[in-house]
Specification:
Layout (H helix, E strand, L loop, with lengths): L1 H20 L3 H21 L3 H26 L9 H23 L16 H13 L4 H9 L1 H22 L7 H6 L1
Helix pairs in contact: 1-2, 2-3, 3-7, 5-6, 6-7
Amino acid sequence: MIELLGLLLIFMIIGAIIAVETRDLLASVICVGAVGFGASIAFLLLRAPDVAIIQIVVEVLVLVILIRATISRDLTAISGDREFFGMVVAIVLLFVVFLFGMRVFEHLPPFGQPAIETLAQSPARVYIESGLRDTGAANLVTSVLLDYRAYDTLGEATVLFTAILGALAILRKKARKRKEDREEE
């Protein structure tokens, strides 16, 4: 797993360097998105799926906003003519990402095998054995979300709502006019 994380880190560093060095804004935004999705894969490898989900949601919202801002500002036009070298590089990168994804699936436990069986002191085992007794909650899900992982749940909800509000503020159709602009009309 360390090797996979190392390869992922190299991929993210290369993406960050390309994002900083390129002059094309759209290519830079795409590279930043690749770095963000690499971070979400790293969270999955580190067995933090909740953080990976939040990373993906925020990454998608940020990419939508940045691509919209980039296309409207940069006036990037996509022509029918494509360079052969660029196409080859894109195909090679897709193939490398595919191989990396296949490599990740090798390290997952077999389908249907509960994670609680793989670790003796897994958090799930502790939650099941002593969750209701320790917290006094009405059910096990409530004890996990609101007692054991309350700060984590609060942080995830805050990030989600902030991202949604930011996307709504930027992507709204009609911009609000300032008071001075309305008085001039």
